[in-house]
Amino acid sequence: MPQILIKLIEHLQADDAGMPELAALIAKDAAMTSKILSVANSSAYHRNARTVGLEQSLVSLGTDMIKTLVISESVFQTFNSFPHSGSTDLRGFWKNSLTTAVIARDIARKMEYPHVEEAYLAGLLHNVGRLALLATAPKEYGFNFMARDDEDLCAVEQRTLQITHTEAGAWLIERWHLDSFLADSVLYHHEPLARLESSHPLIRIVRLAHLLCCHDDQQEAVESGAYLCGLDGEVLAQIVSSAARQVEKSADYLGIDLTGVDDVPVPAAYAPPVLDPVQQRLSEEVRNMVLVSEMGQSFARQDGEAGLLESMTRSARILFDFENALVLLENPTGHALHGTATGDQQQRFSEFVIPLNKGGLVAASALERKLAFISRDGHAQSALQPQPPLSVAEDQLFRILGTESMVCLPLVANQRCLGVLIGGAPAWQMASYQKRARFLQSFGTQAAVALETAISERGHARRQIAHVAEEYREASRRVVHEVNNPLSIIKNYLSVLDSKLAKREPVVGEMSILNEEIDRVGQLINGLADLQPTETTRATDVARVVDDVLRLFRATDFVPASVQIVVRMQEEPADIEGDADLLKQILVNLVKNAVEAMPDGGKIEIANRGHVNRERKLYLELVIGDTGPGLSPDVLANLFSQVRSTKEGPHHGLGLSIVHGLVKKMHGLITCRSGKAGTTFEILLPARSNPSPVGGVQTRLMDSV
Fold it and tell me: Whole-angstrom distance between the N-terminal and C-terminal Cα of the chain?
């Protein structure tokens, strides 16, 4: 808010302030001085040829006109500079605001309200929330900015933006910290009159002024408002009749051309139809899966682990609007998280360590492989799950990120947590991140698979053996140190035992102690076994995963109507050993590439061809084929390379390197056949033990997905 307007309000509320103080205030603002001089020297006030100065202009205009001009010009200049105001016709808005302001001032005079200029300012600002909503959400609010100002508009605003223009205007004015009920008068100018009977006079004045300006046809409401203000119908008629002339004069002085403004149609408020929540969720799922799939392809093209980590943090900031992001990787034995120096992160972060066995929210996120939402001030993210106190390491992370809250995303591949991606964000965004948990997890899975591939390609196995050996050496040294204590005790008690046996004294107590210390030695040595990694596997129903993928596409337009999808599945259950999420990502990539290969339409077939014995191992054969133009021999020869094909066409090999990596992680095999009749990918996945006999085939057809 302009300082001159704030000081003017203070001046108007002072009982002993006069014209000299008002002149000194205006003289400090060059633009306001120029406006006063131009109006005072206009034909309406100036009769002589000689130009008058500021003091003479103030005397010529009079106190009332000066106050009106200063308030109107300050508000007009401030809010005409709002974003998107230049692309919108604001003449109708300002005419409505000036009319309400003039009527509010005259009502205040009739009620003998002591601060008539405050009433004028309140009327002028009563709809400023509409400008705030236009600036904040121009696309969503552009049409309704021109809509009729009534209760229906407030309902549409609440439904589409979760805030009304009355709330937005009051919120804005409250930020000016005025010693006034100005914000309340803006907030309640659509309130039912029955609730305003005992309210502050300024609130009742603005409510009645708004009715007379915008809803003079609602006779019963106008009469109720007049009753609340202690005015009769004849007085209101005089106020309304004189308001038009005053508004025209004020608009002329402010440079607002009102010609033809009454001819602009004022539509009713409009709210777009509510989308089907199931349709909306499915569309969001498909969009998220495609986005994550594209990220996976981008990760696969990165050169080296450092480039991949940089790509991961950059993509996370873009996709999820993180203010900052960093990655902590598990050491090979899974005992601690180590920082990685990427992007703007200083080298010292590579020395940052969080032990996994010491507890804490970040460690729990990695160990439990679950998303965690952490607040710096310790406020609980959920009433059912209060947040425990932060550790020193977590407090350090907040200082490194420079944010109020952070999201901890475990990077899990093949049931193994490789590390944690941590994104920093404002506290008010945490609720939206919790709603996007599945999207975050899908991103984490894709990033983890790419990271595991990069680590393997750089000889991760050798480094892991070296680290494990070092951990064993360190653990052995610790065990030797700890075992010395019970061994010393055992040695001493053996001497005591020897002495007592020679004297034929009872040795029950000594034998009990020896047994306890021997057990303790065994426990310390068995602690070394905790370093041994364990592997877990789980069964996945291929038909169910295929159904899940097709269900996601079924209610969206992701696949054009010209593309037909046929599914052929065995009637008997077909389980594999592998992760359902990885299989789902494989299918999304291949179906997406198949659609891109057939811009003019065609058919995609997904088939389960039953079990295959390959090198004394049992696999399930899953086939995905299309009727596209096929691939050239050069592209086919480098199909699963991590280098993107340079051949024409967006579908030639794009994204198949990540598919190859996912199949490898599932301990499977993938081959491709391609010709003029189309392209077919044959995937062999490890079959579940004791498979059921092969039955018939079920065929399903999806014409329009």
Answer: 54
| CATH superfamily name and code, 539-702 | Histidine kinase-like ATPase, C-terminal domain (3.30.565.10)
| 82-258 to CATH, choices 1.10.1200.120, 1.10.3210.10, 3.40.50.720, 3.10.300.10 | 1.10.3210.10
Write out pLDDT tens, residues 60-100: 777 667 777 777 777 777 777 777 666 677 888 888 989 99
Question: How far is CA 671 from each of CA 450, 497, 530, 548, 629, rounded to the nearest angstrom?
Answer: 20, 73, 40, 24, 18
3-state helix, strand, coil in the chain (%, to 5): 55, 15, 30
Helix (H) or strand (E) holding 552: helix 542-554
pLDDT score for 701: 62
Cβ(295)–Cβ(446) under 8 Å? Answer: yes
- Residue 294: closest CA among 275, 320, 276, 319: 319
> What topology does CATH give the domain 277-286+313-448?
Beta-Lactamase (3.30.450)
CA-based nearest residue to 640, from 626, 659, 627: 659
Mean pLDDT on 387-392: 83
Q: Please give the single-letter amino acid code of residue 647.
A: K
Q: DSSP for 632-668?
A: -HHHHHTTT-SSPP-SSSTTSSTTHHHHHHHHHHTT-
pTM: 0.45
Domains 277-286+313-448 and 539-702 in one fold? no
If one counts every other C-beta atom within 10 angstroms of the C-beta of residue 569, the result is 21
Phi and psi at residue 306, in whole multiples of 5°? -65, -45
Neighbours of 474 (CB within 10 A): 11
Residue 421 reports pLDDT greater than 90: yes
Percent of the chain with pLDDT over 70: 79
In this structure, of 381-390, 429-438, 499-508, 568-577, the range with the lowest mean pLDDT score is 381-390
Q: Which tokens go with 276? A: 């089907």
- Is residue 684 a contact partner of residue 614, using CB atoms and an 8 Å limit? yes
- Torsion of Cα atoms, 552 then 553 then 557 then 563, to 10°: 180
- The span from the CA of 365 to the CA of 375, in Å, is 14
> Can you give the residue ranges of every domain in the chain?
1-72, 82-258, 277-286+313-448, 461-531, 539-702
**Is pLDDT above 50 for 666?**
yes
Q: Report the percentage of the chain scoring pLDDT > 90.
A: 20
Give the HSE-up count for residue 129: Cα atoms under 13 Å, Cβ half-sphere. Answer: 29
pLDDT confidence of 295, banded at 50, 70, 90?
Answer: confident
